[in-house]
Amino acid sequence: MRKPRVTAATSGPDGLASTGDVAAIVAGTHGDPFAILGVHDAGKGLVARCFVPNAEFVTAYTLTGKNAGELSRRDDAGFFEGKLSIKKRQPLRYHAKNAGGDWWLTDPYSFGPVLGPMDDYYIAQGSHLRLFDKLGAHLIDHEGASGVHFAVWAPNARRVSVVGDFNEWDGRRHTMRDRRDTGIWELFIPDIGAGHPYKYEIIAPDGVRLPLKADPFAFKSELRPATASVTAVPPAHEWGDEAHRSYWRKADPRREAISIYEVHAGSWQQHDDGSFLSWDELADQLIPYAVETGFTHIEFLPISEHPYDPSWGYQTTGLYAPSARFGDPEGFARFVDGAHRAGVGVILDWVPAHFPVDAHGLANFDGTALYEHADPRKGFHPDWNTAIYNFGRREVVSFLVNNALFWAEKYHVDGLRVDAVASMLYLDYSRKAGEWIPNEKGGRENLEAVSFLQKMNKELYGHHPGVMTIAEESTSWPKVSAPVHEGGLGFGFKWNMGFMHDTLEYFAKEPIFRKHHHNDLTFGLTYAFSENFVLPLSHDEVVHGKGTLLGKMAGDDWQKFATLRAFYAFMWGYPGKKLLFMGQEFAQRREWSEARALDWNLLDFRPHRGVWHTVRDLNYLYRSRPALHARDCEPDGFSWLIVDDKENSVFAWLRSAPDGNPIAVISNFTPVPRDNYRVPLPKVGKWREIINTDASDYGGSGKGNGGVVEARAEGGGISATMLLPPLSTIMLELVAD
């Protein structure tokens, strides 16, 4: 839909603007202000026109300070025009006066455009991969002046203005230039710099003035509850993380140890008054803690700007702006750099599935369904009362793909965990019959979303090797983590929601009943290598009345702690990368709330400290033993040793890799010690006990095998007879000859 245009009778024979044009400028309804304002030819000379509210007198000057002529007031609201003494068109400054004083301003309408035809071409094609360098607010020098260049996509608007503290939020003063081929509006405003709040005032196609809109490409935002975008100097951080980035560029992440600590930045720790830590404070405390606990990566719940704390960041209104809750964007760059220098990667939770309908956000952005679908059967998400991106629109796809590239380039993030992928893939997600529209082939698959995800992954992996993408995808959609050229979605990894569901269901059962549910823990190995999996014990499992991981374990307090330790070792020995939500590494007792910090005092108590020590040691083993990580995603790294001892609720398997000693993982999920228990092993010799979750150092009963067992050839096979401690997991490593 193309917007109606204002026909500009630019000037009459005497060089004066038409009365209609003057009235439209003063009213803020003119669709093409550059046709009227600024410097224009008038016969053999030049004329200048400007709109300066509250001025009584205006004199024009060149940027070098040369007097260029007096302008006359055509309209008492502040419209001035007059002939110039200069011979060549050039930018002007105005000296304005009234009874109260005088002031200077530089005329934005005397400057040429910043964007060029090549930008138009690639933007219109949907192939521009540096939109974040063109759209939004950029501090630049242009035609001899310093200022801010604003650019925003609003193809159906009648008029778009920049408003802010620099123009008293008056939409008449800085109406933008419409680049009609692309629907981009742009304006260079001289004499302003960083730190100014601003929004866009948009007149919809029907002439209605919309609520002021934040900039979709804002790189900085005001602290909530304020919602304006803020002009900002681009991050100029001097990075010192080349060693970290070079390592991951060359690595195959499927064969690397990846143990992820999932963190909500606002509630990991807080100040005594409940206020948030800054990025620098988080760097001082969180990075050393992650290193000490042995995690390889920190994954933040969404840190993009969002208006509502209880959304945890999943309803974002500023995809390009690190939230003001934690300080300036530069602070986030320092955090990432600090983490990298300490050998820790940073993954961001990323939300391209939907966006909130707050009035200042993307919804109905130019008076039409621009970023979302107009039909609520495709454009409205019933679960979250949010809008769904229109993945069939190339400009929307470009907006999102560029955002993925932006975080990798500007902030050096190591990966994106993509939220709610299942909701994107299915047109009937959370919808009843008649509430959704089939695709062009009559199916339920969202083919446009599939194409978007494939494009995003191709561009991100193509331009930033070393960065990984992780899909939160809860269905059996095939090839989520397969390459696009093989028909996959192109993700690096996929969350294994089945592992999470089955294990938590199993451990919630009293030990005496677990023999009837043995298959809950063995079934997962039938599909464990169908994708590149991350095993997630995430924030979703410890909110909304679900309690905590400790609380989910069956039995009395001692059994709960023992089972949790055994579960963690089971998981760290299981094929797949690891993810644990904050607080669960020390057995947080209270359910997580974004409104308060974790209960760090629990680390003063032996059972909680024991769980933390268990996780720390598991991370060390996982990272240091190739057998535990180098074949996480390949079936030749796993083989069952004991799969069917349901009567004793015992499980045992072997992990192996070409460049490491094999490791046997043995779990006993009853509170009964199993003495003289025979475990098949692949080689004769001594097998050293490298972890025993029942060790007294961890808060267990201290039962074990003296640190070593001997495998012997007996009865046509090789096995070791050992004690299996109660509610425990042990790992045995073959001692090299």
What does this structure look like?
The chain has 737 residues and is of the alpha+beta class. It has 15 helices and 35 strands. It has four domains: 19-107, Sandwich (Immunoglobulin-like), CATH 2.60.40; 117-231, Immunoglobulins (Immunoglobulin-like, Sandwich), CATH 2.60.40.10; 243-626, Glycosidases (TIM Barrel, Alpha-Beta Barrel); 635-734, Golgi alpha-mannosidase II (Immunoglobulin-like), CATH 2.60.40. A hairpin with a 2-residue loop joins strand 8 and strand 9. The protein starts with 18 loop residues before the first helix and ends with a strand. Residues 1-9 have low confidence and may be disordered. Catalyzes the formation of the alpha-1,6-glucosidic linkages in glycogen by scission of a 1,4-alpha-linked oligosaccharide from growing alpha-1,4-glucan chains and the subsequent attachment of the oligosaccharide to the alpha-1,6 position. Belongs to the glycosyl hydrolase 13 family. GlgB subfamily.
Would you kindly provide a brief summary of this structure?
The chain is an alpha+beta fold.
Keywords:
alpha+beta, 4 domains, 8-stranded antiparallel beta sheet, Immunoglobulin-like, TIM Barrel, 35 strands, disordered N terminus
Number of helices: 15
**Mean pLDDT score, rounded?**
95
Query: CATH superfamily assignment of the largest domain?
Result: Glycosidases
Helix content: 10-25%
Based on CA atoms alone, the radius of gyration comes out at 31 Å
Major sheet attributes? 8 strands, parallel, barrel
Overall SS class:
alpha+beta
Distance between the termini: 76 Å
List low-pLDDT spans: 1-9
Count up the domains.
4
CATH-derived topology of the largest domain = TIM Barrel
Family: Belongs to the glycosyl hydrolase 13 family. GlgB subfamily.
Subunit structure: Monomer.
Pfam family, one: CBM_48
Keywords: Carbohydrate metabolism, Glycogen biosynthesis, Glycogen metabolism, Glycosyltransferase, Transferase
